[in-house]
Every structure is written in structure tokens, then in C-alpha cells.
Amino acid sequence: MDVTYEGTKREIATDKGVLRYHEAGDGPPLLLLHGSGIGVSGWRNFRGNLGVFAEHFHCYVLEFPGFGISDPVEGHPVMTAGSAVTRFMDALGIESAPMIGNSMGGVVGANLAMRHPERVSKLITIGGVGPNIFSQNPSEGTRLLQAFADDPGRDKLVRWLESMVYDRATLTDELIDQRWEMAKDPASHKTLAAMYGSKAFEAGQKAMAKSGMPPYWAMMGNIKCPTMLAWGRDDRQCPPDMAMIPMRLIPNAELHIFPNCGHWVMIEAKEAFERIALEFLQR
């Protein structure tokens, strides 16, 4: 099976621009949704896992608009990502599918499961969902993202990447170089600034308070599909106390915490995560 970058990359036109993605495997569909952050992409999040999941599923690694790969659209990145998933599924004729979402991708999947439950058959989130209870908010990782968004620099990228992992050896020179090149893309940085820039972050907090609407995580009792919450015990971007509310509110949720692991569970706890995720998806 070809699971190389060139061998799996695809694109499809929609009424709001071109969506690019990676595709591999046969069987029932499985969507993999990437996180946010500096120089992120779906391929970088899930390239190491694609071959394993593609042995059992027809996998689609979607690149969200605004991160320098799919065509950008106007709007908040989390909301445009959610609409991109439904556009993507409609374009390919996928009525319903299980979804694996890393961090922001988990939030996107959770929102879809609440608002369009018929589209999400199972949900796996990797960090990201829920509120900080005991840990500081913004977290250490988010503060480092804000510092980069306000004034980009390679040294700030490295400091943020170090907060993402338990083992510093995970951060190869190649990975840092790739992230830095993508981070210099204007569309990618515009999205990062819209999510994490200090002014945008403060404006978003005020707008949420003014709206009177409950935060998305307060409504997670509406997620009816089986849900697996995966967390690194040493996550400094989304500390594991965030899992407490979704674990309690989502009726059919189970929580798996991986030791000696930071925010990138699918990378640092690769084999254990894949084994547990496959058991959950095939259950």
C-alpha cells in the first residue's frame, strides 16, 4: 500500500474552494482531523499513523482551510474547519463516518457530533476538548503560541514545540525546519493570529462573554455517539484536567491517559494509541 505524501495526496473542488487531503486504504471511511498550532497540517499530524489505520479503513486526512494547503475561507478557523468537514463529506458522498481529531480537530469533531449527529458514528479526540479546571488558562502551550503569533521567531517556535512533547528527542531538526517553513506562509500565520494572537484571543473571550451563550463544552451531553478521549499525562498544551468535564458529560465516553506523553499522543504513544483506537473503532 502506498502511504507516501505524493502517493496519497488528493484535492476536490467545492462551492467554497478546493479542499486538499490524503487518502489511503479500503473499507469503511475514517476521517482524521488535524489540530492547530504553528506550521501544522493534517499530513504532519497523522502521516505516521496512516499506514496502520489504512489497513482497516478508507482513510481521509483532511487539510483544513486557512492553514496554507486547502483554499482559505473567511471566518473563525474552528468554525470554517467544521463546515469544511461537511462540505468534504458531501463532495465525496460520505454520509457518516468515525472521526479522529487531534486537539482542535477533536473540538471540530465534537461540535459536529453535537450539531450533526448523523454525520459522526464514533469520535476519538486527542486532547483539546473541555475546560481547564485546575491548570492555568491560558495554558503554558497557549501562552507560547500567543508569543509566536504576536511576534514570530524560530526560537519561539522551538520553545512551543518543546512544550508539546514529553521527550525532546521527538523534535528532529527536520520537523523543526518543516514547521518553520510552513509557519512563514502568510495564510498559515493569519489563521494562527486569528486563533492565538493576544488581541484576537482577548476579543474572542469578550465576545463569548457578551453573547451569553454557553461554551461548547457545556453542551457535550448532546454527543450521543461512542467517544474515546485520549490524553497525554504530561500534556502542557491541554493539561489532562481538561478531560474531566467531557468524561462526565458525554454519555458514552471513555478516557485513556498515556504516560510519558505530551500533546501529540498519536506520535509519542504511537503503538499504544493505534492499538486502543483500532479496538475502539472496530468494537
TrEMBL record:
GO cellular component terms, A-Z: membrane
Keyword set includes Hydrolase: yes
Gene Ontology MF, one: hydrolase activity
Record flagged with keyword DNA-binding: no
InterPro entries, per database record: AB_hydrolase_1 (IPR000073), AB_hydrolase_fold (IPR029058), AB_hydrolase_sf (IPR050266)
UniProt KW keywords: Hydrolase
SUPFAM superfamilies named among the record's database cross-references: alpha/beta-Hydrolases (SSF53474)
Domain AB hydrolase-1: 28-269
Alphabetical list of PANTHER family matching this protein: HYDROLASE, PUTATIVE (AFU_ORTHOLOGUE AFUA_2G14860)-RELATED (PTHR43798:SF33), MONOACYLGLYCEROL LIPASE (PTHR43798)
Protein name as annotated: Alpha/beta fold hydrolase
